[in-house]
Amino acid sequence: MFMITSFLDLEVYKEAFQLSIEIEDLLKSYPASEKYLLVDQMKRASRSVPAQIAEGYARRESLKDFQRYLRDCVGEANEMINHVMLSKHKQYIKKSGYADELIERYNKLGKKLTNLKNNWQNFK
Fold first, then answer.
1. pLDDT tens digits along 21-80
2. pLDDT-based confidence at 116, cuts 50/70/90?
3. ∠ CA 113-46-109, rounded to 5°
4. Which of 24, 5, 11 is nearest to 80 (CA)?
5. Average pLDDT along the chain
6. 105 falls within a domain
7. 5 inside domain
8. What is the CATH number for 98?
9. What is the pLDDT of residue 1?
């Protein structure tokens, strides 16, 4: 059985970090008028997920604290679904099917985070 020795070993962290990098790249093509609006919100939310997983892992001795961080991560993932849907509606995402792919990946990430939150004892 694989031992988790760091937050870097968590699949949810790896996926959240990869998504944040992809979002950063995507936002470079957004219009300047969104710089302090949607772009800023998406940067903050996408960066928040892996950062909160890392911080929550450091506090995992307190199950309630760790679960709170993971619950907040689910909220940020849901926020990203909303932002990507808005970006799709405004036609900011040019690559065909990419918006739907991002939405699905954030949806799956939210489910995995919820699973981890509810079953952390099985991962220790």
1. 999 999 999 999 999 999 999 999 999 999 999 999 999 889 899 999 999 999 999 999
2. very high
3. 25
4. 24
5. 94
6. yes
7. no
8. 1.20.1440.60
9. 54
The identity of residue 122, as a single letter, is N
DSSP annotation string for 17-76: HHHHHHHHHHHTTS-GGGTTTHHHHHHHHHHHHHHHHHHHHHTTTSHHHHHHHHHHHHHH
Q: Closest Cα partner for 100 from 112, 90, 87?
A: 87
Instruction: Please give the tally of structural domains in the chain.
Output: 1
Which residues lie below 8 Å from residue 13, measured CB to CB, with a gap of 6+? 7, 50, 53, 54, 57
Q: Could you tell me if 43 and 23 are in contact, meaning their C-beta atoms sit under 8 angstroms apart?
A: yes
pTM of the model: 0.93
Phi and psi angles of residue 3, each rounded to the nearest 5 degrees, phi first = -95, 135
